[in-house]
Amino acid sequence: MSTSSPNSRVSLVSVPALAALSAALVGLAIVLAFWVAPEDADQGISQKIFYFHVPIALTAYACFGWGAWKALRLLWKGGERYDLESYVAIHQGTIFGALTLATGSIWAKASWGHWWVWDSNQLVLFLVLFLFYSAYFMLRFSIEEGPRRANVSAVYALFGVALIPVSFLAIRLAEDFIHPTTFTRDGPQMTGTMFFAFCVCWLAITLVAYTLYRVELIGKRLDANLRELREILTA
Amino acid sequence: MSYLSDVAALARKDLRLELRARDTLPAMLLFVLSTLVVFHFALPTGADEVAAQGLLWVALVFTALLGLARAWAPEREGGALEGLVLAPSDRSAIWLGKSAAVFVFLALIELVALPAFALFFSPLQAEAVLGVLLANIGICAVGTLLAAMAAASRTRELILPLLFLPLAIPLVVGGVGSSVSTDPGRYLLFLGLYDAVFAILCWASFEYVVSE
């Protein structure tokens, strides 16, 4: 039963080291984004949020993808640990998705004067995904724990990765009849240092997400083991 | 051939049940007509016809939800799903049969709802009707699978709209586009793409939703 014991799998990097590394990288990213990268000619200081908003969004996608990959492994091969890993990845993805909505909203206010704009396809897509993955938790926690729940959650997680490109296409198509795009956000002409700062930020945020993923996984596994022990003791 | 005859038998079973009990179809029909009347009051004078065309899709999606919430009720109440899962046939046939039955229900409702819409608001283009048909496939494919998921949960009817609506947004985009756009071809193509992607996904994954 206890194939998911926290000590049974050897990991390449220990969590404290990972945490220290991601903290250092986030520090470096902040320095690079605010002091090294030049200020954007059009948008000024408000453009700095780009260095965090976009990496957070990309990280959220990565988490959803990772969760779906684990879900596929679960359906393909079976194995309890994939269920937990898929769930934790989607949990992190949803947190980062909510952060994307928050930072996107702040950016929209700073550059266009409104807290919410339907013109930004990415933001609308994240709203749809956020609703979709919020329902994932509702579904998961209303099914009794066991293989049925693992399977249903995994299938739903797989639907998520199919929904991402389909929704993106749908939102692009909807532009035609909803209203013409008045703002375009494409092509921030990045200089070399800006691009470097962006890459460091991206790496930092991804590492933070991975650290959080590992920490949550350890916590959840400990929880499961503890429950198992308690059941054995009371039995 | 035996796969298709399994599917046909399962779909026929659902249609026959409905023919005898008559509890879902009349409810869906009354719901869609009431919704159209509500729309009349929700659209103030001066709101253009295009708005009504968009609202039609809201009515269709919610009516489908009403039917989907009841889709697995006979199996659940009779405890028949275990029997179906254990039957010596491919489990995806259960999904396909149920989807086909839901499709027939939805098409029957729309046979009344679309003329009623044309009568109350504005006539529909042929492309819009084709859009409705294509969207029906997607609604039934995805909705039947999600309804089976919801049936496994404690909250059942409560959770189905939460699962279904985010997945229905692309269908609404395609449907509204095919009704109001000057170039409906793209939207019809998109609906076809959606149907293909999600039908394959549902077909392949249904087995995991019903088995332990």
Our measurement of the CA-to-CA distance between the termini of chain A, rounded to an integer number of angstroms, reads 16 Å
Average per-residue pLDDT of chain A, rounded, comes to: 87
Distance between the termini of chain B: 28 Å
Principal-axis shape of chain A: globular
Spans of chain B of 5+ residues with little confidence (pLDDT < 50)?
none
Outline the low-pLDDT stretches of chain A.
Answer: 1-8
Topology (SSEs and partners):
The complex is a heterodimer of chains A (235) and B (212).
Chain A: H1 15-36, H2 50-77, H3 80-112, H4 121-140, H5 147-178, H6 192-234
Chain B: H1 2-21, H2 25-42, H3 49-69, H4 73-78, H5 81-86, H6 92-120, H7 126-152, H8 160-180, H9 184-210
Helix pairs in contact in B: 1-6, 2-3, 2-6, 3-6, 3-7, 3-8, 6-7, 6-9, 7-8, 7-9, 8-9
Report what the structure shows.
The complex is a heterodimer of chains A (235) and B (212). The model of chain A is unreliable at 1-8 (pLDDT under 50). Chain A is globular and about 70 Å long. Helix content of chain A is 76%, strand content 0%. Chain A has helices at residues 15-36, 50-77, 80-112, 121-140, 147-178, 192-234. Chain B has 212 residues and is mostly helical. Chain B has helices at 2-21, 25-42, 49-69, 73-78, 81-86, 92-120, 126-152, 160-180, 184-210. The radius of gyration of chain B is 17 Å and the shape is globular. The mean pLDDT of chain B is 92. At the A-B interface, helix 4 and helix 5 of A face helix 7, helix 8 and helix 9 of B.
